[in-house]
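User: Sequence recovery, please. Input:
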């Protein structure tokens, strides 16, 4: 496995380890990713001795400007070298209590340290010791499992997951990221241990959920979460999308499968995590709003509005940021039906202007989501919708050139209104500004200062205001 040790840092670590007489190994994710030919910048080094001492000696040898961060309570130390982050830790043996995923830790052998790893593919080590330099130490057949694309725990799976239930999310995350299959006994153990997820902090769950979402095909992860029972526990609103009802011989589509298809579609055209979240949540209120209407069939009235209202609660629970990223998701969920409701033949300029105004900078992403939202099996329907969208896009472009509505700035400011009529901050200012904005969106006046100013005078007069004499 010398090919994994090309970077000159490994030679240096080996030299220092030899001088200090401490057996040293590269272990875990770096070894896995090297075999998979994936780029990694995090390296884990396990030492039969003190990781902190070895890290300090290595940093000394590397010379000036190399910094060691020491985490004494974890017994680890991190050295940054170029774009690599190298973490040193003494080999350890772990045992667990039922109430916490934090183990009791004691010094151990390399074997103990490999036994505590979550999956066979994550438990491989490469020797950095003189006589065996570059040798793979793979007690559980991790290399073979990589070849066969299989995720499996090194030891008894149920105990592995019960000890640290975060590993269940990690299994599903790796399946989604790497396109691997979770071996049957391992998946069964996840199903059995699913309720243990309650001892894992939300932050850690969300880190894994975001990694699932950022994988090439997030639907793999969502299907596994659903199948294992984890989805119901960590994201019941999403679980509720599953299922089809029939009334009077009419069935609606299964919104779980529809949504994960939309997420995959978005993933294939954009790396933006928040657009992927918008895809996850775009139909989240469908279960709540579902009704069967004798004339209309299945309806999900106002699901976009109620869905956008649900975003905050879900973000809060998931410990996702309650900032402009959340507002972006709310905005896209709220508007996700608008572009498709613009029927291209009859669409008015003012409807397009209002969409551009309401979406602002999110417009391009909104259009991506709307296109991704077309998941009909009927090719004709898909083609028809896509054609309509290209017409809507074209109209947007035409109107934008003329009106610059996207980042709308009121052409007459509040100060100018106050100055003109000699008034202090008060209700009429808002009324006038709103009136001007509406007139621009309706195409009654153009988006420029002169026309807006004239309208302001007119509206001011109507409100009984008088221009200040100069
Ligand atoms: P990535 O870096 O892509 O998130 P990784 O597998 O490298 O994946 P890290 O958090 O960097 O994950 O952990 C490094 C190694 O530590 C893993 O490869 C695995 O051997 C071990 N490990 C991490 N988390 C756990 C866990 N919860 N249980 C057991 N072993 C773990
Ligand atoms: Mg890693």
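Assistant: Recovered sequence (470 residues):
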């Amino acid at each position: 496995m010398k090919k994994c040790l090309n970077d000159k840092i490994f030679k240096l670590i080996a030299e220092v380890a030899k001088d200090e007489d401490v057996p040293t190994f590269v272990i875990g994710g770096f070894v896995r990713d090297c075999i998979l030919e994936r780029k990694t910048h995090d390296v884990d080094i396990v030492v039969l001795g003190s990781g902190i001492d070895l890290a300090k000696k290595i940093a000394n040898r590397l010379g000036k400007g190399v910094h060691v961060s020491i985490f004494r309570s974890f017994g680890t130390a991190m050295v940054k070298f170029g774009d690599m982050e190298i973490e040193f830790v003494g080999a350890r043996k772990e045992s667990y209590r039922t109430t916490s995923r934090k183990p009791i830790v004691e010094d151990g052998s390399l074997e103990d340290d490999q036994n505590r790893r979550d999956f066979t593919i994550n438990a491989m080590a490469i020797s950095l010791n003189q006589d065996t330099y570059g040798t793979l130490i793979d007690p559980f057949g991790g290399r073979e499992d990589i070849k066969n694309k299989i995720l499996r725990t090194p030891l008894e799976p149920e105990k592995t997951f019960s000890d640290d239930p975060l590993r269940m999310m990690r299994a599903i995350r790796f399946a989604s990221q790497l396109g691997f299959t979770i071996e049957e006994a391992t998946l069964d153990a996840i199903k059995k241990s699913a309720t243990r997820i309650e001892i894992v902090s939300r932050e850690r769950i969300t880190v894994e959920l975001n990694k699932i979402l950022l994988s090439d095909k997030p639907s793999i992860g969502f299907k596994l979460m659903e199948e294992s029972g984890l989805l119901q526990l960590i994201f019941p609103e999403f679980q509720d999308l599953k299922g089809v009802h029939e009334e009077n011989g009419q069935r609606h589509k299964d919104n779980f499968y529809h949504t994960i298809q939309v997420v995959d579609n978005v993933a294939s055209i954009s790396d933006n995590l928040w657009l992927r979240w918008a895809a996850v949540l775009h139909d989240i209120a469908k279960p709540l709003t579902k009704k069967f209407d004798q004339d209309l069939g299945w309806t999900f009235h106002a699901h976009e509005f109620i869905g956008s209202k649900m975003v905050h609660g879900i973000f809060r629970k998931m410990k996702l940021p309650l900032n402009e990223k959340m507002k972006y998701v709310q905005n896209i969920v709220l508007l996700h039906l608008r572009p498709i409701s613009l029927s291209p033949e009859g669409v008015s300029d003012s409807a397009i202007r209002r969409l551009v105004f309401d979406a602002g900078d999110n417009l391009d992403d909104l259009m991506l989501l709307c296109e991704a939202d077309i998941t009909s099996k009927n090719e004709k329907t898909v083609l028809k919708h896509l054609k309509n969208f290209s017409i809507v896009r074209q109209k947007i472009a035409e109107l934008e050139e003329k009106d610059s509505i996207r980042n709308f700035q009121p052409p007459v400011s509040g100060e100018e209104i106050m100055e003109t009529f000699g008034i202090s901050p008060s209700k009429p200012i808002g009324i006038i500004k709103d009136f001007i904005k509406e007139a621009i969106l309706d195409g009654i006046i153009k988006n420029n200062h002169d026309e807006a100013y004239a309208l302001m005078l007119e509206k001011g007069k109507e409100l009984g205001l008088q221009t200040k004499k100069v």
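Residues 270-407 form one domain.
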